[in-house]
Amino acid sequence: MMIGKMKRKLERVLMLRTKGSPNFAQFGQNSSSGYLGSGEVGDVEYVTKKARQRMALAAAPGKCILVTGPPGVGKTTLITRLFDTLKASSPNVNIQGFYTREIRERSERVGFEVVTLDGRTAPLASTTTSGPESLRWPTVGKYKVDVASFESLALPELQVREDTDLFIIDEVGRMELYSSSFFPAVLNVLESHIPVLASIPIPKFGRDIPGVARLRNHPGATIFTLSQSNRDAVKEEVYSILVDKISKH
């Protein structure tokens, strides 16, 4: 019932948006301070007000929803189900990003791949890669991380565009953070007006990865710790928040 109400609300917002909404493409973008007023717009006071609204929204509670929990608890499953529910309820909603999926051979996990929301894939890490180029790759446990492959698919998905309603980033973890370009791209997304749904690992031995700690402490972050007993309840609550944030961004 709750999802049905949220579906109707989101459909009304998207319908109104297509009939006529402010063209925010006229505002300039600055990587360090969010959206700034553009000199091309005649009403400076109007532009400044819009810039303040955007920067305030970027730090608003719930603007960045983080899902965390132990390995195997279902973080990626939750995120892909939320994506499917949002697209099924409102096909016009524009969601950008990627998720990470296991690669298995004969029921054994041998690696991970990055999957865009339109179904394209690229290797992220593997235990079976043995080419000479892989000798220089960083490792996480038994996995060799193919940073170039990850960047080729994931980084374009993190480009901020005015028509994007939501970013999905699964996950911001140790493998992904071997890319020197990845975390700056994530920060750029956070500085935009666009809501973000991301997953992060739990601290290992009580210590967070620095980039993950920065996300966890972001002023706009709302964190959900997933467990087997609360997965359905978390899905409902996160869905409700996303519909609300998409309707307001």
Descriptive account of the structure:
The protein has 249 residues and is α/β, with parallel strands linked by helices. 38% of the residues lie in helices and 22% in strands. The chain has seven helices and eleven strands. A hairpin with a 4-residue loop joins strand 5 (108-116) and strand 6 (121-126). Helix 1 (2-19) packs parallel to helix 7 (231-248) and helix 3 packs across helix 7. Residues 16-58 have low confidence and may be disordered.
Question: How are the SSEs placed, and which strands pair?
Answer:
Elements: H1 2-19, E1 28-30, E2 34-36, H2 44-58, E3 64-68, H3 75-89, E4 95-105, E5 108-116, E6 121-126, E7 139-140, E8 143-145, H4 147-157, E9 166-169, H5 182-191, E10 196-199, H6 210-216, E11 221-225, H7 231-248
Parallel strand pairs: 3-10, 3-11, 4-9, 9-10
Antiparallel strand pairs: 1-2, 4-5, 5-6, 6-8, 7-8
